[in-house]
């Protein structure tokens, strides 16, 4: 219930979830599965205040539309800032006293900063030399003091660092006179996503063979050959998967060196409000190094069908999703999509080169363990590389959740 807008799809899901709960709740009680948190004794009721409130959401939305009183976002953030964060700084003893002490210290620090800012603020009543004091008294109706107080309050309490609007930066660069800025542009917009690359690459010049060895990509030259054969040296076509590798590992290319960026910053707009900017995030792809034997990289979503547009299209045409035995595309217990690693007929990983502007979003991947026992050799450095299937974590970000679920 933290969505800023509740669509008809979300409303129907709420109603269906409540109906499913009432259908099975008596079975849970009959088997004694509902137990008290402290006594561990079976309970014969589901007396949840939030659950009782939830029954009024759908009827109210049908009558008056969605209203802010149904969102738990504000209270949830307050609970995190006032309770969870201070409690996490304690030693799990005497919570009340330590939380109060933490809040008290934070308040003292905040008041100290406010006092210092007030002392450093220039006096608003000072006049420049040569001014007429009588005239100043006549025209001073209090508005100047009010404006000064408002400006001071804004300087003290408003965020000191605003999110960079990369969309506006990209528009300004497009309007710049030819030759006044380097080309190609390092900030550009593609579909609903804006991209920002550093002016200087992480590796300014590296041979194709050295890049293949550094990133452990033995078929890099063949992949570049396939891409050029499919798109041409200067084509701007929408690239799709081209199937098995056709070019040899020593294919002739019109260039011998590459420039490499290890990361790119992306920014998108809010799923429910296109006028609201989302926070910029970074997608990394670093070469193997200790202790990252297989490299350190982030998951990302690429658009491979120009008839679809992220985020409105959801996961259509984006991923190879494993269909469950019951016909569902999500794992029942977690509600997460299961992704399968793409491989060739030989079992080798399937690789492809795509233009950067087809990247649409980052995605959080979690390893999936098929067996009852987890391989003890797995670690945070190799679990994703060694897992044939993995979970797509849709709970990592609200806007990503809305896009995946279509809420």
Automatic annotation (TrEMBL):
Q: Which superkingdom?
A: Eukaryota
DUF6830 domain location:
165-316
Name of the protein in question: DUF6830 domain-containing protein
Q: Which species is this UniProt entry from?
A: Boletus reticuloceps
């Amino acid at each position: 219930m933290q969505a800023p807008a509740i669509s008809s799809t979300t409303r129907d899901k709420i109603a269906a979830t409540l109906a499913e709960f009432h259908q099975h709740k008596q079975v849970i009680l009959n088997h004694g599965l509902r137990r008290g948190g402290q006594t561990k004794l079976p309970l014969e009721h589901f007396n949840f205040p939030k659950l009782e409130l939830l029954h009024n959401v759908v009827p109210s939305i049908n009558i008056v539309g969605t209203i802010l009183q149904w969102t738990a976002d504000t209270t949830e953030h307050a609970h995190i800032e006032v309770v969870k964060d201070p409690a996490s700084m304690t030693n799990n003893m005497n919570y009340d006293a330590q939380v109060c002490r933490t809040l008290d210290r934070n308040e003292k620090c905040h008041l100290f900063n406010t006092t210092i800012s007030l002392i450093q603020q220039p006096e608003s009543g000072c006049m420049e030399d040569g001014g007429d004091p009588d005239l100043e008294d006549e025209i001073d109706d209090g508005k100047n003091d009010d404006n000064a107080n408002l400006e001071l309050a804004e300087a003290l309490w408003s965020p000191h660092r605003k999110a960079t609007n990369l969309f506006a930066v990209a528009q300004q660069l497009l309007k710049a006179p030819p030759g006044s800025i380097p080309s190609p542009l390092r900030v550009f917009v593609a579909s609903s996503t804006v991209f920002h690359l550093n002016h200087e690459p992480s590796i300014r010049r590296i041979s194709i063979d050295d890049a293949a060895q550094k990133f452990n990509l033995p078929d890099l030259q063949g992949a570049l050959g396939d891409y050029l054969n499919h798109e041409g040296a200067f084509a701007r076509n929408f690239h799709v998967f081209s199937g098995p590798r056709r070019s040899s590992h020593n294919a002739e290319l019109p260039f011998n060196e590459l420039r490499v960026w290890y990361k790119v910053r992306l920014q998108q707009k809010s799923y429910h409000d296109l006028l609201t900017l989302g926070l910029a995030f970074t997608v990394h792809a670093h070469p193997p190094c200790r202790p990252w034997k297989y490299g350190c990289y982030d998951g990302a979503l690429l658009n491979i069908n120009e008839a679809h547009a992220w985020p409105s299209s959801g996961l259509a045409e984006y991923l190879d999703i494993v269909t469950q035995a019951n016909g569902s595309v999500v794992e029942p217990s977690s509600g997460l999509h299961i992704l399968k690693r793409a491989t060739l007929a030989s079992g080798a990983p399937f690789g492809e080169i795509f233009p950067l502007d087809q990247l649409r979003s980052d995605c959080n991947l979690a390893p999936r363990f098929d067996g009852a026992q987890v391989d003890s050799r797995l670690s945070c450095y190799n679990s994703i590389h060694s897992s044939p299937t993995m979970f797509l974590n849709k709970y990592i970000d609200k806007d990503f959740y809305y896009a995946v679920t279509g809420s």
